[in-house]
Amino acid sequence: MMLPAENLSIENIEDALRLEFRTQVVEPGIKSPAKFLQRWSYLSSQVPRLHGAALARIKIPDIQLLLAEIAYGECGSGNRDKIHSKLLNELIRQSPQADVMGGSVDPELARLFEEAVTALCQMNQDEAIGFIVGLEAPAYDILGLLKRSLIGVDIPADTVLRSEYIVIHEEVEKMHQESGHAAMGIILDAGCDLRKIYEGGDYAIQFLIDMVGERRFLGAA
Questions:
Q1: How many domains is the chain partitioned into structurally?
Q2: Banded pLDDT at 131 (limits 50, 70, 90)
Q3: Quick one: which of 126, 128, 151 has its CA closest to 50?
Q4: Is there a contact between 16 and 3 (Cβ–Cβ < 8 Å)?
Q5: Rounded distance, CA 1 to CA 17, Å?
Q6: Which domain holds residue 127?
Q7: Per the domain annotation, does 220 fall within a domain?
Q8: DSSP structure string for 183-207
Q9: Which residue has the higher pLDDT, 171 or 59?
Q10: Position 183 in a domain
Q11: How far is 111 from 220, CA to CA, in rounded Å?
């Protein structure tokens, strides 16, 4: 999907990326909550690597700071017990289906992730910024999918909604929205190429669709 040049703005780019994710993942729905959580658990444990790869491509100090703050938060803000992937796994372990969601990482999933890291390391600055924009654009949709999937594997709804993982992410997404608005001004002032930002964002959205959507893993148990 390509946006007409006259429609390019950070807000329109975010809206287009969010719509693509909703069309490809949210609207079709998650057929196997356990499989979705297994995939997301792996992605959650590796996502700071994406922020690090993007950070290496970005020369603007203010954007470097924003990315470093996001990665620091994902890693527990200095507290290893609060690493987000650990909090998610603690929550998943409360499911009667926890054993189904454990085990080794799907080699195809790992391959897709490594391909994305390699591609990100070869992007220019504006594409790398776009990649992070793409990762963040559907954040609220993903949080909704996570809540439904966690409840779908028989974790009580009250336990899910009060869990540290969900509470933190509801707060974090609000903060990311605020920092995102600040980043928009920085990006525009720096004269970044919005077309390249969109291309990087579209790559990120297709990556997310492949990682957690049903398109590539159709029929998986």
A1: 1
A2: very high
A3: 128
A4: yes
A5: 9
A6: 8-20+30-211
A7: no
A8: HHHHHHHTT--HHHHHHHHHHHHHH
A9: 59
A10: yes
A11: 17
